[in-house]
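Subject: Interface between my chains keeps coming out wrong

I've been trying for a while to get a sensible model of this assembly. When I model each chain on its own everything looks fine, but I need the whole thing in one frame so I can look at the contacts. Pasting all components below, labels as-is. Any help appreciated, I'm running out of ideas.
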Amino acid sequence: MDRIFERLSDIVGSDYVSNAAEERFIYSRDPGVQRPHEPDYVVLPNTTEEVQKIVLLANEEKIPVVPLGGGLVLSGLSIPLKGGIVLDMKRMNRIIEVNEKSHYAVVEAGTAMGMLSAYLAKHYPTLKNSLPDAPPVATVAGNVMIHGSGHLSQSEGGFHSEMVTGLEVVLPTGKVVKLGSCSTVPYWFSRAPLPDLAGLFLGWNGTTGIITKVGIKLYPRPLLNDGLMFLTEDVDTVPDIMFRIVNTEMCEDLTFFITPKPAMFEGFQMTIISITANSDKEMRLKKEIIRDTLKDYYESKEAGFVPIPKEMKAFLLEAPQKNLSAFADVRKGGGFEYVGAIIPVEKIPDAYRAGLEISARNGITYSLGGRMIGRGHSFMFYFAYPFNRADEDDMNRVRQALDDTNHAALKMGGIPWKAEVSGQQLILKQMWPATYEFMQEIRGLLDPNGIMNPGNWEVNP
Amino acid sequence: MKKEYADIIHRCFRCGWCKLPLNFKDFNCPSYLKYRFESFSSGGRLWLIRAWMNGEIQTSERFAKILFSCVTCKNCVEACAMPKIRQYLVDMVIAAREDMVEQGVIPPGVRDYLKAVSISGNAYKMPQEQRAIWADGLDIPLYSGQEYLFYVGDVGSYDEVGKKMARSVAMLLKKADISFGILASDEITDGNEVKTLGEAGLFEQIASQNIEKFKGLGVRKIITLSPHAFNSMKNEYPKLGGNFDVYHYTQVLNAAIKDISMAEVDLKVTYHDPCYLGRWNNEYWAPRSVLRSVPGLELVEMDRNMQNALCCGGGGGNFFTDILGTGPDSSSRVRVKEAIDTGASVLAVACPICYRMLSDAVKAEGLEDRIEVRDIADIVNDAVAV
Ligand SMILES: Cc1cc2nc3c(=O)[nH]c(=O)nc-3n(C[C@H](O)[C@H](O)[C@H](O)COP(=O)(O)OP(=O)(O)OC[C@H]3O[C@@H](n4cnc5c(N)ncnc54)[C@H](O)[C@@H]3O)c2cc1C
Ligand code: SF4
Ligand code: SF4
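Reply #2:
Try treating it as a single job with all components included. I did that and got this:
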């Protein structure tokens, strides 16, 4: 039997290692359009110690290690571009601790976002975590790793990586480190007041280490939630509308979408304002304040609030929003991929126009929209393109559109988020050269054998 | 594979909503829960089936295990994010199994089961004459024009806990003055598992044989012990010309229970929804209503109940083929721990397969002194007897 396979089996048990054709097939691809590449082994560790032993073995054998969470990033970031071991982290999904008064949870890396939220709803009903609209099996570590964002990104903490209070990481050399307050005291309350080392890992796509535990901030869960929809025909007004709403500090989540279907929405931009409150009185007041701030818009009939159909409200207020996943089936094709560009808020109109132009040029359909991150600090603008998985030409058109979009996002002053490898290369080419060099130096120090998710964050993979 | 499925199988996004129940409590796809490789999740399995159809992967033992470890519990159907394909998810798995059966390359456990059924008329390779041992001493008549045929099925006829359950139900039906008869040694398997294991031809043969027999005897109404037989007789037999009024025993009891007098009990009970009654046939209330009508019985729910229930792991033929296997992550063992969390001392079941799976799991977990698995009819019987 294969020596590496045997050693991996000794570490995690033979039930949790595979080099079978079936697993190599499934773990060679994700739901997006990036091209597949097979791993040699798929391993499902259960503890930090097991991860550590796997990493030591990988160093000895000089084979790549690619961490995988939910595998839902869509841009192929866990496709093992150079083979090796895919480390599926989802068996490590224990919720270790919830500190109610200090508002944080400590979870194992592979904990599903949805499962954390269900756990809180049952055991700590006054608290909640910020949920991305990714399917609920997206993992906490995978999401913070790529600077995800979610329902509380506007009102509470910005990117989910900013909500991280501490990490446990297995370094590429096998050392286990704890970062944040947990490195010094038994509490995981924050990364301050210590030198902040978490940035060596967050955003690096697993190229600098494997996260095994995450401390993540929790927030109050008000009793009621409701929403308002504001509709405008002039996209140039959207940044100002967003600015005003944010400044009221009355809403929880602030998103925006444009879709060619259903036809009644075509040509309009819809801003969705989610509001939470603990009483009807508070809800009424918050709505009134938000309405007031946009008074001149709706009085001039340039834009206006529209009632949200009951059915639509139910899915708009759902977290995560299932209908976003269902977008994959709009063309009966089973897939979509998007460029989520992090852009300055004032660039929303440019992004909108670019999205329309690119999809028209490539002859594909689209959904455009996004979410406010922080109190108006940046905007995650998504350009989502559905494709037919059974039609290679269609997938090629979407690949082209994604590439065009990456270029356009950078040109307008934004940065593609969780970019696929080719998008990462575009970013790196535009990056301040000394910064890129510094990144590579850090990586060389942390991962001398270059085993961690190779191909990512490299100009020449 | 049938064209209608071959044309849509690429529409699974592999987004994984189907791994969880609607309330996200925990992994709710038993084969994924057990194996944890993406390949054993609903989406992974569908992608592999497609790859197999396209020649990207070959028939193998591993692939067969992946295919046959689906317990057809329909959690995926409930939770899938794609409204237009979700109702076909399990049908696609069954269709792929049919292709595999046709090619003659199936796991030994599946082959043995299908062989036993076709040769002996039951999964246990037991003599047909021993079918009605469960009824010894109960004075139950053979079916001869009574209002209902009580169809007991293989597990109720041959499995020890199944037999206990068949007795409890029959005793209660008698107490409720319901007119019924049984087929005894004339009964053969209902075919539900044969169908889900992909032997469509054998299923048709079994179903037709049953339909003919039922018609010959003038049967119009059927009470089934098992939700699995309930499913095939209610939903599949009509396609082959067998139109009977089919009821699960909890439905008949629910209608009759108001006339049964019961004494007060002191019992905290949680109820496990069988997939073939719940998600397959949308019957969540009759069993609960029967339990609630027992005076003093406190019914508490597990976190995963009704549409969100975690399967016992015995569906889709796995009860007989055991492809899903045992171990701490097997859904039956996870399920009994969930039942313990409710504080109930009784885990009520309404299916002989669940009964066996969960009883064994209680033993495997060493929880015999904390919880007892009991069938609904047995619980009611005790209250009647008090
Ligand atoms: C319909 C849909 C909607 C979405 N909406 C949102 C949204 O609203 N907000 C949002 O943020 N995202 C969204 N996403 C994108 C993505 O699904 C999420 O960000 C998701 O949380 C990623 O987590 P994951 O566990 O799937 O990560 P994966 O895709 O598994 O991994 C992401 C990256 O992190 C690395 N990684 C994973 N685990 C570890 C670990 N333990 N240690 C080190 N590296 C690791 C991987 O190697 C990879 O590079 C959406 C996706 C879909 C399909
Ligand atoms: S079956 Fe449905 S929910 Fe599951 S992966 Fe496929 S599309 Fe997603
Ligand atoms: S039917 Fe049940 S076991 Fe089969 S894939 Fe769906 S959820 Fe999993």
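Reply #3:
Confirming on my end. Residues 262-385 of chain B form a domain with the Rossmann fold fold (CATH 3.40.50).
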